[in-house]
Amino acid sequence: MRPYLDAGSLSLFLVYIREAHPEGGWAIPAADGICYRQPKTLASRLAVAAKFAEHQAEWCAGVPMLVDDPTTNALDIAYEAPPERLVVLDEQLNVVFFSGQGPFQYSVPKLAAFVKAQLGE
């Protein structure tokens, strides 16, 4: 996706909804040893999301991030996203690609093929 982003033919943003594997929940050992409790306030969720972006900088550097407010979970409800999902919106913000829930029901190669087809490649 990076070549399309760099060329300006694609815009991307991350949506941080909630911890997929929180401490005290369905936690899994992380390679970097990082595990957080499920944030209950927007301030704490923003802090955890910032740490996620910092640790994933190699692929999401410069990509804006939306963070779901844990008091409403509006994005979680709208996209039925936990623990993760791939979604493409067109210029009118209509959903034009919607994967199954990750990590087992989505495919980054299918997303890449969809993007290439939409860009006429």
UniProtKB/TrEMBL annotation:
InterPro entries per the UniProt record, alphabetical: Iodothyronine_deiodinase
Superkingdom field: Eukaryota
Gene Ontology MF terms in the entry: thyroxine 5'-deiodinase activity
Protein's recorded name: Iodothyronine deiodinase
Species name: Emiliania huxleyi (strain CCMP1516)
